[in-house]
From TrEMBL, chain A:
PANTHER family per record: HYDROGENASE-4 COMPONENT E
Key words, A-Z: Cell membrane, Membrane, Transmembrane, Transmembrane helix
Signal peptide as annotated in the record: none
Xref: InterPro entries: HyfE-like
Membrane topology: Multi-pass membrane protein
Highest rank taxon of the organism: Bacteria
Localization in the cell: Cell membrane
The protein's name: Hydrogenase
Species annotation: Streptomyces triculaminicus
Automatic annotation (TrEMBL), chain B:
Keywords: Cell membrane, Membrane, Oxidoreductase, Transmembrane, Transmembrane helix
InterPro entries: ComplexI-like_HydComp (IPR052175), NADH_UbQ_OxRdtase (IPR003918), ND/Mrp_TM (IPR001750)
PROSITE patterns attached to this UniProt entry: PROKAR_LIPOPROTEIN
Highest classification ranks of the organism: Bacteria, Bacillati, Actinomycetota, Actinomycetes, Kitasatosporales
Entry's transmembrane regions: 14-34, 46-70, 90-123, 135-160, 223-242, 254-274, 294-312, 346-367, 387-415, 427-447
Name this polypeptide is given: Hydrogenase
Source organism of this protein record: Streptomyces triculaminicus
Domain called NADH:quinone oxidoreductase/Mrp antiporter transmembrane: residue spans: 102-393
Length: 234, 466
């Protein structure tokens, strides 16, 4: 693979990776958000595979396949199943309405236009913050590092501003995707044992969050974070 | 049938206690080995015990033994819930031990995130609205916070690789600490900043502390004791490892500024929220934030005296807080409320329980002879000697506010006449003995560190890093 082609493909994959995070902010339908999140997992696996092919490290290709399976397959599947879990029959007469409001992010703390603007600002911020990272060892891969940071920040923003439990889970997963991307772009991935442990932890965290979502439905009749107001100071 | 069930439950409780005692025994054995021969490694370079990790392991073992022996039992309304509780507590002890013994910073991170996952279940063990809410907030805030710590670790790994450290050793703490001078300063600064934010969330430091009062208020009492007493210190000990690297790579100014700012902000928040607190478990939670901020201030000062005071503070706070949370758990069972306003005249109604709570709070207030008095005195002396008088002075003013609030609230609960004349409630020897032992141990620490003196000095040398 020629250097130009490698750089172009890498930039393409990173661009898709960042775009997916921005589209998550743009969408409101939770099912579509999960679909875009799965596509982002594919882009992340592509980044890992490209780096592996370029450096001639074939074990990275195996890691890329693993990442693809986890982040484009298993994790979106788990979130989707939590989404389609039957809502608690709190209002049997209004079952259809209940379903609709559950599947949509109806009232994010920040509206969509402002969210997109914030995503642009966060991307600029990550380019500013990442300058020392790029200067340390400028290669095509490290030049794309700000993209990983931007996705981490966008994920954090999603986590803070979205008021549906599952949208928050996707925000957490975006952060994690961004961190994995940073690890690959900066140093072709962390050692395998750490990568395995981190993936396992993330998987368990999503399982726990899923169980908590089910319990939240049972206890509160929905998954709106704004309903969580049992515990407050005064 | 019921008798048989209770017997089995007794066996499982004994197993939990045995687990904690095993950790304590291993820590004692390692303490002897490490003091005599220096750091011990196992499984290649995966596990490593130096004086600092042994000190933390001792704290884990002691606090866990105390909390599991003294605390009100876990859920016993339903066999499956009780079994799940046991398994989760065993696993929590294992991951806490792994978090202090791992030599690889990546594995430390994995273990600390694993404690989040395990304790989220323990916090949400009851399916009430309050429990589910606390578990959700805990899981989301801590996972996101600790993800930032992972990002910081990844950046540090990048800096290490660029400094020519091979892949297998680039997250190995002894290697990193030894060659930290060659790490790129700008990348290290960014990385350690993220780690302070991330592990700080887990240790209950601002700005990602919002989960803490809810979680400590809702978890079963022994779990609150473990989380407040050791989990927060274990996360902070992880942070200390990064601080050593940052201090060598950047000089002490960066971590000192970062930790002082975090500590004072946390202390101010804790003091403000302690005033007018109406729930005694949340009151203890804010007191944990107060003590963690003092520990962070000790790390910021960073001289050998400050580091010893900080480590003594961790152990003393763990013991006192375990007694306090377990006593609060028994009180909750006795009165079926966590409102401070509904508890009056506890000393008259339940003398042993009231005395245990009173002494634990006195220890937490930092009064002599308890270990926290010696630790706070050491911190103040070290702070003024290191030219950080303004920070320590500010902390003392905030501390006085917290002191007044905590003292007044507890005095109102303990003194006075009980609301209705009831026969005195007995705590039972089985719960009272561990509480007494914890208080005695905490007081003994304030008088002398005895056989632990050598270990404390070497641990402080590692944590000070200079």
């Amino acid at each position: 693979m020629g250097d130009t082609l490698y750089t172009q493909l890498l930039d393409l994959a990173c661009g898709a990776f960042l775009l997916a995070a921005v589209v998550v902010l743009w969408l409101r339908q939770l099912a579509s958000i999960v679909r875009v999140f799965a596509l982002q997992g594919v882009a992340l696996a592509a980044v890992a595979a490209l780096l592996g092919a370029h450096e001639g490290r074939w074990e990275l290709l195996a890691v890329a396949v693993g990442i693809g399976l986890l982040r484009a397959g298993l994790l979106p599947h788990l979130v989707r199943r939590a989404l389609s879990a039957p809502a608690a029959p709190a209002h049997p007469g209004h079952h259809y309405e209940e379903d609709v409001s559950e599947a949509r992010e109806t009232r994010p703390l920040v509206n969509v236009a402002a969210s997109l603007l914030s995503a642009a600002l966060l991307t600029l911020l990550s380019y500013a913050v990442a300058r020392p990272l790029v200067e340390l060892h400028p290669t095509p891969a490290t030049r794309a590092l700000p993209v990983g940071l931007a996705v981490v920040l966008t994920g954090f923003f999603t986590l803070v501003t979205r008021r549906r439990a599952l949208a928050q889970v996707v925000g957490f997963l975006l952060m994690d995707n961004g961190i994995t991307a940073v690890a690959f772009l900066a140093a072709s991935g962390v050692p395998l044992i750490v990568e395995l442990g981190v993936s396992f932890d993330v998987l368990l965290a999503v399982l726990v969050l899923r169980i908590l979502t089910t319990r939240m439905r049972a206890a509160f009749g929905g998954t709106g974070i704004d309903d969580l107001r049992e515990l407050r100071e005064w | 049938m019921r008798g048989g069930g209770a017997g089995r439950r007794g066996g499982e409780e004994a197993a939990l206690l045995l687990s904690a005692l095993t950790v304590l025994g291993c820590a004692a054995g390692l303490a002897v080995a490490v003091t005599r021969h220096g750091p011990v490694t196992a499984y290649g370079r995966l596990l490593r015990a130096d004086a600092l990790s042994v000190w933390m392991l001792l704290a884990v073992g002691a606090v866990a033994t105390l909390a599991l022996a003294a605390g009100p039992r876990g859920p016993d309304h339903d066999a499956a819930a009780a079994r799940r509780y046991d398994v989760l507590v065993h696993a929590l002890l294992a991951t806490l031990s792994l978090a202090v013994l791992a030599a690889n910073l990546g594995v430390v991170w994995i273990a600390i995130e694993a404690t989040t996952i395990l304790t989220a279940f323990l916090v949400g063990h009851r399916r009430t609205r309050a429990c589910v809410e606390a578990a959700w907030k805990y899981m989301v805030i801590c996972s996101a916070g600790i993800a930032l710590a992972l990002l910081g670790t990844v950046l540090l790994y990048y800096a290490a690789r660029q400094a020519g450290i091979p892949e297998a050793l680039a997250l190995d703490w002894p290697t990193l600490a030894g060659r930290a001078g060659r790490l790129d300063p700008a990348v290290t600064r960014l990385g350690t900043g993220l780690v302070v934010l991330g592990f700080g969330a887990k240790a209950g430091l601002a700005p990602l502390h919002a989960w803490l009062p809810d979680t400590y208020g809702q978890a079963p009492a022994p779990v609150s004791a473990l989380m407040s007493g050791v989990l927060s210190s274990v996360a902070f000990a992880g942070l200390l490892r990064y601080k050593v690297i940052a201090d060598t790579a950047l000089g002490p100014a960066w971590s000192r500024a970062l930790l002082t700012g975090t500590a004072l902000l946390t202390l101010a928040l804790a003091a403000a929220l302690l005033i007018g607190q109406r729930d005694y478990r949340r009151m203890l939670a804010y007191s944990s934030m107060e003590h963690m901020s003092l520990i962070a201030l000790g790390a910021a000062v960073g001289t050998p005296l400050a580091a010893s005071a900080m480590l003594l503070h961790m152990l003393g706070h763990g013991l006192a807080k375990a007694v306090a949370f377990c006593a609060a758990g028994h009180l909750e069972r006795l009165r079926a409320t966590t409102r401070t306003g509904r508890v009056r005249g506890l000393l008259a109604e339940a003398p042993v329980l009231g005395a245990a709570l009173a002494l634990a709070v006195l220890a937490l207030l930092g009064l002599p002879p308890f270990g926290l008095f010696a630790a706070e005195l050491g911190l103040v002396r070290a702070g003024f000697a290191a030219g950080m008088g303004w920070a320590v002075g500010g902390a003392l003013v905030l501390l006085l506010t917290a002191f007044a609030a905590l003292g007044t609230l507890t005095a109102r609960m303990l003194l006075g006449a009980p609301p209705a004349p009831r026969p005195p409630a007995r705590l039972g020897v089985r719960a009272a003995l561990p509480l007494l032992a914890g208080l005695l141990l905490c007081a003994a620490l304030g008088v002398s560190t005895g056989p632990l003196t050598g270990l404390l000095a070497s641990a402080a040398e590692i944590a000070g890093g200079r």
